[in-house]
Amino acid sequence: MTETTRSAGRAAARPTPTGRAAVHGRAALLAAARSALAAGTGVHLTGPAGIGRSTLLAALADEQAAAGRRVLRCAPSPDEHHLPHLGLIDLLSAVPSSAPAFAGLPPPERSALLAALHRPEPDAGAANPLATEGDPLALPLAVLHLLTALCDDGPVVLVVDDVDQLDTGTAALLAFALRRAGGRPLLTATAARTGAGAGAGRGAWATGGAVALDVPVMGERELAGLVGPLLGGERSAVARVHAESGGNPYVALELARAAGEPGVPAGLRDVLLGRAAALPAGPWMTLLAASAAERPTPRLLRRAGRDEAAADLAEAARLGLVEPVPDDGGPVRFVPPLLARVVYDDADPATRRRVHTALAAAAGDPVERAHHLASLTPGWDADVAAELSAAAGAARRGGAPAVAARLGRLAADRTPPDDPAAETDRRLTAAEDAVAAGDYPLARRIAHEVLHESLTGSGRPADRVRAWIVIVDSCGQAMAEVADVFPQALEDARDDPRLLAQLHHRMSWRAWMVEGTAVKARTHAARSAVLAASAGDRRTELAALSQQAAVEFYLGLPEAERTLAAALAAPQDPRVLFDHNGPVFLKHRRHLLHDRLDDARTELRALIYTVRQRGSAESLCQCLSGLAQVEILRGRCERALDLAHQSLRVAEQAGLSQGPAWYAVALAEAAGGRTDVALAAADRARRHSEDDDDQLFLPRALHAEGHVRLLRGETTAAVHALQRARLLETGQGQGDPAMRRWQADLAEALVRAGATDEAADLVAATRAQAARLGRRGMLAVLDRAAALVTEARGDLDTAVGQLDAAVGRLAELPYPLEEGRGRLALGRLHARRGDPRAARTALGAAARIFRTARAHPWLALADAEADRVERPDGPYAAGRPRDPAAPRLTALSDTERRIAALAARGASNREIAAALVISVKTVEAALTRAYRKLSVRSRVDLARVTLDQPAAGRPEG
Hints:
65% of the residues lie in helices and 3% in strands.
């Protein structure tokens, strides 16, 4: 049987991801395997069924063949390993009997090999020496001599998939040849399954000197690239598939292909059950009990009658069906998690009922017990419904809102029809728990069920208002999508102060996010607080007071401190206190206004710890994002990058609006990562905010974009983005510049663009606001911007004094990156004034700050500026100040300016084209236009004009 037909015949027997799954997310693993083979070492891939070993091995083999190496392949099958020399037949199928390597074998060896391969002798009448003489060395020597002869033309790679299934005869022959290859380039690339279905160790011949590489499960991001197109790119669906598959690409692909269909796909179900078929009856029953439990542990299983639970689970772990259970008796985790559902569904109803009965009697945890009672009582039962509702409350208090939502919905389903009020209340409570868990699709589905029943029956208006509020709360940043909800909800609320208070609280958010007016948002928040207090609804009152305080800080109103104190006063409600819109989160913002970065960090770290235990996904996302921004201010750029990307992962997994998370990623990448990544993140933040019509976060996204473009030297684009942010912020009524710190960046961008007077007016107006509110940090940053205005007006000596003073004030404050930016500007200014020693001192200090902070983009700028100072033919040579009458770079487009800056620093046209990912012809044309616009004739003149203007748009170093 040839290799091709064997592979096709066994496709169903051995599940293997195909296509993109072969290499998607596996670049590092392939690189390691490639390096091992290049070094003359074998490679051995291991992993459970469906993890992608076979396709990785195939991709590696194809690479080796494309590189000109001879590749001999075989893929043995478990049901064929008893057939002698079948693996050898496959391996040598691509080597014809007429090949020189065959012809060079001694006749006894050639005859023995041809007989083993079931090939005819060239001379049909010749006798087979192996058959007549029975020489036991003829065949091993034939394989050795053939393979080493093939190595004369270059390395030979033996590629064997499922090597443990190789027939014993072939395994012995290959082991013999490899031991005696004598340094010939005879390499192996093999793969073996671990866990259930693993072979009996017949692959030892290939693993001795090989580099062992375990093929890991895929992370959610890797899996998103694989199954995302099948799921329409929906993040929550990708997260569900990742959770159920455990990162196994085969399982994930099967689930994604069957998305929307009920149950587990039949083919996948059969494969998973086939893995578990090797378990004896006792361990199988233990596995079934574990699959039926809410939180299975060996202790619970023993109490439920599975006396040999520890040994049974160890056997299941040996087969790769569950993860090894830790010594402390932690939970049983199925591999993949979907296996638990498959095992449970495979049992007959009577057996499942016995298992649930035993587990219910053994459970000491009310949540666990309620789970089994629900399974034992499928119909209406008031007692079971009450117990399920109580268990949902216990899960809620224990910080498990997802469990609470599921149990609450079960409680509603078990509630008898003669108590519709209780049924609706339990259903709505489950929806509210789903919102807290970040399961917004479930929350909206339950809310719409309640609305449908209420509007078609005799439902209560109060229930409809709760349902409307669930729909509003589950929309995240996209409140524009639910604008039509409020009139209907207000009509249902009528004159009920409790319901009206809850609605006005949401209307405050809508006014700020959708309508873009903080003044109106404050009015609604204050109204909500008053109504809630009159109704005795402390939870809504605290939430409304927190919102009111946040808006008042933004507006720069002195009442903000008093309102925040009221929001922090006792009695408190933990659901508000530890929410991202609550008073504790707002406290960290107040600390930032007063430059207390360590206090802000302490508040957020404590809040994140609590939110991880009992808060919502949205709160965790916002808290991580907020802490990332604090770490940027503190000059901890690597930590900020980690936190920002954590925030993004939470948003993706929960299906949240991603604008805020991408905003944090943009800022963190600009501070300590890569500016191209930062710009892409800022663009995504802006697009998400625009798609959601989120006026609250859109100006922040625009600020991030403008900041990154300013850093990259893209002046015109920076001004455009920052001016849009300014228009939105002033339109919303921002009165405290320290709440959103875009003003200094815009002033610097305006200076670079030649709009000096506009920059000066902006600095003056912002300074007045900051001085009124006592914002020391903001004033120091504005001092730096004011010095840039003075420099642009040609008064360099005064600008030096202003910058010196600004740097001194920034050094007294906890803003290292701002201090570094000030010293960078001071170094440039000293260089322009012809004082290279002072320039070196300032630029060296800036570089030390950026290096300590791991602020790589800023460090590159400082180093590049230091290089210009040292160049004898550079723009600062001989202390030559810039000629005020010199052509301004504002005449150039962004692309022309970047090309000119790189050319001025000595880059060739080809190097510029590679750096900017454009053609050499585009570079040549842009330089021609730049020469004409700047009235220069050479690169020397271009360097003088380009590098002598601190307002010039320069790419990072």
